[in-house]
Design a protein that fits this description.
DNA-binding, Tetracycline Repressor, domain 2, 2 domains, mainly alpha, Arc Repressor Mutant, subunit A, homodimer
DNA sequence: ACTTTTGTTAACCAAACGGTTAAACCAATT
DNA sequence: AATTGGTTTAACCGTTTGGTTAACAAAAGT
C-alpha cells in the first residue's frame, strides 16, 4: 500500500469515526478520544489530518446535507404538480431517512446549537431565490386555480415535513412508548410513504365535481 | 426577609436559572458556571442547595413533563370520539407549546441522549396500561365501525404528533428558511390549531353517505 | 545504503470543568 | 453584645478535555 493511499485511507477512517460519534453524541457530547477509539487510531492523528474538533465536525455536518440538498432542489425546481412533487419528496426523503434514521436528530440538534452555521452553509450558497419560496408560490397558484383546497401554503408544507421527519426525531421515545424494536420501526416507516401520501391527498384534493 | 424565605427564594432562583440554561444548551452544553451567572449567584451555592449537575438537570427534565402528562392523560383516558380527543389534544398541546416553544427540542435531545431515563421516569410510573395503547385501540374500533377511514392507527397518531410538534423542533431552521421572526412564528402556530384539525378531519372522515 | 519525507505513537500541557473547602457574612436568639 | 446556625463567597482541587510535542517507524527518493 503506497503512501497516498494510506493517507486517504486513514483520513477517511477518521472522518467515518467522527461521523459516527458526532451523529450519536452531538458536538458537545462527542469526545476526540472516542473518535480516535472508534477509528482504532491514536488521538494525535486526528489533529495530524484535521485541524481540530470544529473542522472535523463541520465536515460531518455539511456531509449530512450533501445527499439531501441536490435531490430536494431538483424535485422542487423541476416540473410537476404540487401533489407530484410531494410524492417525489416523500419517496426521496423517506428513502434517505430509512437508510440514515438518526440524521434528522443530529441536524436539528446542531442547527439549534448554532442556527447561523446552517444559514451560512446552505442558504447563503443556494443558487438564486429562497429555496422553498417558489414551491410555496406554486401551492398558492394551484389553490387559486381550484386544483387543491385553499389553506395556508406554509401550513401544508409544515404538515408534510412534520409527518415525514418527526417519527425519526422522536424515534427513541416512540420505540419506548410502543415497545417497538428497530425492525418494526423500519417496517412502519416503509409503509408510511403511501400512507402519508394518501393522507395528504385526502386533506388537500377537492372532491371531484361530476 | 426571614431565613426560610431566602432559602426557598434562592433555591428557586437556582432552579429557574438551571431550567433556562439546560433548555437552551442541553445537559452536555450547559455549564454550572453559566447557571450561576444566570442566577446572579456564586457557583458554590448550586452545590449547597442541590447535590450536583445531574440532580439539577433531573429536576428540570421531570418538570418539562409535569404540565403535559396529566393533561394528556385526562384527555386520552376520558370520554369522547377520536376526533374529539384529537381536537382536545391539539388545543392542550399546541397551547402549551406556544407558551414554551423550546420544550420539545430539549425533551427530544435528552431522550435521545438517554432513552432509559425517559422510560424509568414516565413509563414505569404510569398508572396501569401503556398510555397510548388504549387510544390506538379506540382508533381501530372507530375504523372497524366505519366512523373513520381505515388506516394504520399508529400512522394516524404519528401524523397528528408530527404536525403538532415538528414545527417547534425545527423552528430555528424554519425561521431561517422563511425569514420568519418570533412574532410571525407565534402567529403561524396560533392559526395551526384549526388548520391541523381541518387537515386531519378531511384525511380521516369518510364522505357522508346521503 | 542512506537520507528525506510522511505517518504514527506515548507522553505531555494548559484550559475548562464539576465539585469542595474554609472563612466570612448576616439575621435571629439569648 | 455575644452566640448561634444557616447562607454566601473566593480560592482551591482533581479530573477531563482538546490540543501539542518530540521521538520513533516506515516508506520514498536518491
Amino acid at each position: 500500500m503506497d503512501k497516498s493511499s494510506t493517507e486517504t485511507s486513514t483520513r477517511e477512517h477518521i472522518l467515518e469515526a467522527a461521523r459516527k460519534v458526532f451523529i450519536r453524541d452531538g458536538f458537545h457530547g462527542a469526545r476526540m478520544q472516542d473518535i480516535a477509539n472508534a477509528a482504532g487510531l491514536n488521538k494525535a492523528l486526528l489533529h495530524y489530518y484535521y485541524k481540530n474538533k470544529e473542522t472535523l465536525f463541520e465536515l460531518v455536518f455539511n456531509d449530512a446535507f450533501s445527499e439531501f440538498i441536490p435531490k430536494i432542489h431538483s424535485i422542487f425546481m423541476g416540473p410537476g404538480s404540487v401533489l407530484e412533487k410531494t410524492e417525489a419528496y416523500l419517496e426521496a426523503h423517506l428513502g434517505l431517512l430509512i437508510k440514515k434514521p438518526d440524521l434528522p436528530m443530529f441536524v436539528m440538534t446542531e442547527i439549534h446549537r448554532d442556527p447561523e452555521r446552517f444559514f451560512a452553509n446552505f442558504l447563503g450558497r443556494m443558487p438564486g431565490e429562497p429555496p422553498f419560496e417558489r414551491f410555496l408560490q406554486q401551492i398558492a397558484d394551484e389553490m387559486r386555480d381550484g386544483k387543491i383546497r385553499t389553506m395556508n401554503p406554509r401550513d401544508l408544507w409544515i404538515n408534510v415535513m412534520g409527518m415525514t421527519i418527526f417519527p425519526f426525531i422522536s424515534r427513541p421515545m416512540l420505540q419506548k412508548l410502543t415497545l417497538m424494536n428497530d425492525r418494526e420501526f423500519k417496517d412502519l416507516m416503509l409503509q408510511r410513504k403511501n400512507s402519508i401520501l394518501e393522507f395528504i391527498r385526502l386533506a388537500i384534493l377537492l372532491p371531484e365535481k361530476n
